[in-house]
Amino acid sequence: MSPPKGSGVLYNAIANLSPAHQAMLKYLSTFLEPLSIAEIAELQGLHQNSVRESIDALTAAGLVERSKIETSGRGRPAWAYYTTAPETDVVTDAYLTKFVRGMCEMLREYADDPEMKAYDMGKDWAEELRPHTVAFLEDIGIEFLDVSKVDDKKLLSIIRLLASVAGHDAVLKPHTEATVQMRACPFVDVDGGIDPIMCEMHRGQLERFTSVVSGGRKQLSLSPMFRPGVCEFSLRDAEEAQ
Length: 242
Fold this sequence. Notes:
The protein is of the alpha+beta class. The protein has 10 helices and 7 strands. A hairpin with a 2-residue loop joins strand 6 (about 220-225) and strand 7.
């Protein structure tokens, strides 16, 4: 038996929607029961043709399903539409953060050295992500094996971009040449906190990734929660770090 498709397929579909189609998807998500084209048009004050165009696009993207409206008359069947798209905040808060919290609690309870175990898991995580990283870089015209040959400025820019793609809202720190600030984190819990064990896992992942892509010439140093709302990492020569 094969598993269901990954939710990333749906997120990609949403990201590729036009603003108008995203607005229609958001609107449909506020209704429990399916709505017909005529009902949507009346509620929103739009022409039915405009609504139909948006609904057709959402259906083609796999984000909206339809159900037949039972009628007693003859003619073409009438359809009502409802969304099956995920709500990013719900998935992140209800699933991911709870999973992260549970994993950290298990490490704390069962591992001899929870933070070191998390760090080692992070290094393994970097290896698991390598095929995804290779594919992403190829999509933007960069060969993975060529990254180790770029200058320090471009290497930092590549790592910053990958951190942002992973949900960290990463920016170059003003007035510095080798430091990046991460202003968001997908592992922050619903209460706004983050488990230090998760930070160690992230440290292992970032350090291992940087070592691999730089061909071992650079080492990353992570400073979790360097100041309120911001984590930082910087790059330095591996020889200097020893």
